[in-house]
Known about the structure:
With 180 residues, this protein is α+β, with helices and mostly antiparallel strands. It has helices spanning 31-61, 64-95, 133-138, 159-173; strands spanning 26-27, 97-100, 104-109, 115-120, 124-130, 140-147, 150-158.
Amino acid sequence: MTEPSSISNDPLDNTDLPQIGPQHFERVDPKHLTAGLVVLTATAATVLAFTIALAWIVSLNVDGSVAAKIGALLVLLILVGSAAQFLYLRASLSRLGYLVRERDISVRRGVLVRTVQTIPFARVQNVRAQRGPLERSLGLTSLVVTSAGGSLNIPGLRDSAAQALKELVIDRSGIDEADQ
Length: 180
């Protein structure tokens, strides 16, 4: 016969759990929308060029009026899709933000699926600033905070804000800045 275990796992009262609440999330730089628009425009232009080439190839084998109708329909679909993507980009920028509290850092994002991701400073293992060519040209930086449980990415920060935030996270987390 086994003895009863002294380990318990009783449920917690959820009214005592910490809440992020209605605190103010800092917004990222509006130039982040510009970066998204550059990518969107390049993608739409590439798809449009392939569509025009496809319509031209089809017109060689099919009646010209049918090919023109197909091409016009495809161009219209590309334009409508690009407009929808632009509206989505604007909405996602309005939701994207970060919050630094005494013991943690959070990022909020999402239009259809809204998420808030939080990493306590005590769990931070690495902090790095990333800048691709497009971000560099706009003076923007993405800050990536990594813990054992995953990473948190804050895109669209002004370079100075990203550096200050990186230093704050390093200071609060107690990680060695030489390793960063």
